[in-house]
Amino acid sequence: MTYRERTMKEVDEWLEGLPENIQEMTLVLRKLILDASPKLKEEYKWSMPNYSNNGLVCYLQTAKKHVNLGFHQGIELEEMDVHHLLQGSGKTMRHIQIKKMEDIQPDLFTSFIQAAVAINEK
């Protein structure tokens, strides 16, 4: 199944309403998430895209000046976070804040996404 076959119309419409710079970063992150694992399913929940496989894995949350790549079980990823990118102090969720395109680290983010998918497969 191709990347476009795994996207949802609701998320496409949501993306269209974003400011150009935020939209650009969000589109790159969306593709990164879906390319990281063919198992991930895109959903539109809580007014943002969520990605699931055996439960919720990650999400994209936008703000005026940044995009959060969030992980529903992010606390379990902290051990592999040698660059201290994960933020948040909630019970389980953590996120990486992206303020500009240069903040996107494809290989590193892919490893976080794949680890998050693996957590849900345990």
Q: Can you give a write-up of this model?
A:
The chain has 122 residues and is an alpha+beta fold. The chain has a single domain, classed as Aspartate Aminotransferase, domain 1, CATH 3.90.1150.200. The chain is 34% helix and 22% strand. It is built from three helices and five strands; from the N terminus they run H-H-E-E-E-E-E-H. Strand 3 and strand 4 form a beta hairpin. Helix 2 packs across helix 3. The mean pLDDT is 95. This is DUF1801 domain-containing protein.
Descriptive labels:
single chain, 122 residues, alpha+beta, Aspartate Aminotransferase, domain 1, 5 strands, globular, YdhG-like, DUF1801 domain-containing protein
**How many domains, as an integer?**
1
Please state the overall shape, judged from the principal axes of the Cα atoms.
Answer: globular
Give the low-confidence spans: none
Number of helices: 3
Give, in order, the helices and strands: HHEEEEEH
> Quick one: CATH class?
Alpha Beta
Mean pLDDT: 95
Tell how many strands the DSSP assignment holds.
5
- The side-by-side strand order for the widest beta sheet comes to 1-2-3-4-5
| Alpha-beta classification | alpha+beta
CATH architecture descriptor name: Alpha-Beta Complex
Our Rg estimate from Cα atoms comes to 13 Å
Question: What's this entry about, in short?
Answer:
The chain has 3 helices and 5 strands, in the order ααβββββα. This is DUF1801 domain-containing protein.
